[in-house]
Structures are given as structure tokens and as C-alpha cells.
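queue> pop job 88
queue> type: inverse folding (structure -> sequence)
queue> payload:
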């Protein structure tokens, strides 16, 4: 009888030590998961806050959440009178990449505020919609504010592709702001197009701002690394292709130097970037 009682006591202790804590943990885990699932709902509810800084932070979080529930609440904020809030909403919709946002973003390409037009162009770029390309280029050429032109360059980066190269090169030749030119050169480097290396070398040598020159050097290095960092079997054919690419790169650089050296001093001054 004593043995049976001892066994029963042992079972009770085991139940108390192991099984009860397990269910308690499971219950807490369930609550945690529910909280995680409700985080987006909580953020959406807090969009009504009057604190602008807090509202911007909430909008950013919704933008990176990749949760479709955030789209409609953000669209309702797109008519905000606060340009900062409005631009943040546009950016968030671009990050969410939901096609239903297109009908609300496209009209903003003609907004009276240049900042909103730029934000819309960048968001459309993230949505792989090229209708923002012409607007971004136009603003880059015409805006009198460097910070707006800077944002236009960011919009072109978001749109991406070979089609942004010539507009960026044109901008780098005439823009008066070192901040904008530096950003243009950085974005050119992200295209990884070896054909622009001669132009980047030209900028590195003749631009009037040291930060722009340094960025040109960085972009050249970035492009060179992308050319030779391919992880592939180093066969004779692959080595031959790499050598051919090196020779082509050298040819482009020498061609640029030769054409420039043929110019007399007066013409050299004319072809240098005018700021």
C-alpha cells in the first residue's frame, strides 16, 4: 500500500514539475503569436495620432511590413496636407508593391508640389511602372531646389535600368550642386555598366568638387569589381573572356584620353562640365 502511495505522489510531482509549466508556456506562446498577428492592426489604429513624428514612424513600419492590410489605410492618408506625411505614405505604398496603389500614385506625378512628384516617381519605380521616368528626368532638369533634384536622382535609381544612364550623365554635366552631382555619380556606379567608366574617369579628373571626384573613383571601383567577381569555373575560355573584357575596358579608356588630348586648350575648357 505504501508503495502505491509513493507512486501516486511521484506522478503528482512529475505532473507539477513538467506538464503544468508546459501548458503555461504553450498558453503564453499563443498569446505572443496573437500579439504578433495583431501588430499591424495596432499600427493601423495608431495612424490617427496627432504626433507627426510618431505618425511617420508608423507609416514606415507599415511600408516595410509587406502586409496588404496596410494598403487601404495608407491610401486614405494620401490626401494629407502635410507634404512630409504625404511623401512618407507614397513611399510606403511603393514599398508594399501592391498594384491597387497605381491608380492613386499616377495622378501624383502631376502634383503641384515637386517633392510629391518625385516621391510618386520613386514609388512607381518600385512598382516597376515606368511612367515616373519622364517626370523624374523633368524635375532633375528643371527644379531650382537641390534637395528636390537629389530626390529625383533617388527616384531614377528606384526605376533603374539602362534608360536612366544618359539622363544622369546629362545632369552631372550641368548641375550646380555638388550634393546632387555626387548622388548622380553614385547611382551611375550602381548600374554596373562598364561603358560609363571613361566618363567617370573624366569626372574624377575634372570635376571641381573633391567629394564628387572621390565618388567617381568609388563608382569605377564598384563597376570593376562587378566585372571580375563572377563566381564561375576558371576554364581557359573563361580566362580568355576576362582578358577580352580587360582589353575592351582599356580600349575605352584610351579612346577617351586620345579624343580629349586632341583638343586644344580652348576646346578643353568648353567640354569640361559647366557649373
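queue> result:
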Amino acid at each position: 500500500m505504501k508503495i502505491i502511495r509513493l507512486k501516486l505522489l511521484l506522478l503528482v510531482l512529475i505532473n507539477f514539475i513538467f506538464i503544468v509549466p508546459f501548458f503555461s508556456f504553450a498558453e503564453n506562446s499563443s498569446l505572443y503569436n496573437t500579439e504578433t498577428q495583431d501588430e499591424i492592426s495596432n499600427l493601423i489604429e495608431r495612424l490617427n495620432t496627432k504626433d507627426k513624428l510618431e505618425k511617420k514612424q508608423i507609416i514606415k513600419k507599415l511600408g516595410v511590413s509587406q502586409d496588404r492590410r496596410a494598403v487601404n489605410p495608407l491610401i486614405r492618408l494620401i490626401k494629407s496636407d502635410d507634404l512630409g506625411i504625404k511623401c512618407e505614405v507614397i513611399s510606403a505604398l511603393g514599398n508594399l508593391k501592391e498594384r491597387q496603389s497605381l491608380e492613386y500614385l499616377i495622378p501624383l506625378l502631376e502634383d503641384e508640389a515637386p517633392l510629391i512628384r518625385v516621391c510618386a516617381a520613386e514609388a512607381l519605380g518600385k512598382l516597376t511602372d515606368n511612367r515616373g521616368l519622364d517626370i523624374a528626368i523633368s524635375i532633375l532638369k528643371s527644379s531650382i531646389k537641390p534637395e528636390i533634384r537629389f530626390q529625383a536622382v533617388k527616384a531614377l535609381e528606384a526605376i533603374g535600368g539602362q534608360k536612366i544612364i544618359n539622363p544622369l550623365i546629362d545632369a552631372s554635366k550641368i548641375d550646380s550642386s555638388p550634393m546632387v552631382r555626387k548622388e548622380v555619380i553614385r547611382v551611375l556606379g550602381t548600374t554596373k555598366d562598364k561603358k560609363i567608366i571613361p566618363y567617370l574617369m573624366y569626372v574624377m579628373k575634372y570635376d571641381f568638387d573633391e567629394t564628387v571626384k572621390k565618388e567617381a573613383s568609388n563608382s569605377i571601383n564598384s563597376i570593376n569589381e562587378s566585372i571580375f567577381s563572377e563566381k564561375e569555373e576558371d576554364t581557359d575560355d573563361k580566362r580568355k573572356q576576362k582578358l577580352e573584357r580587360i582589353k575592351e575596358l582599356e580600349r575605352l579608356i584610351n579612346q577617351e584620353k586620345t579624343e580629349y588630348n586632341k583638343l586644344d586648350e580652348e576646346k578643353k575648357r568648353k567640354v569640361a562640365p559647366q557649373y
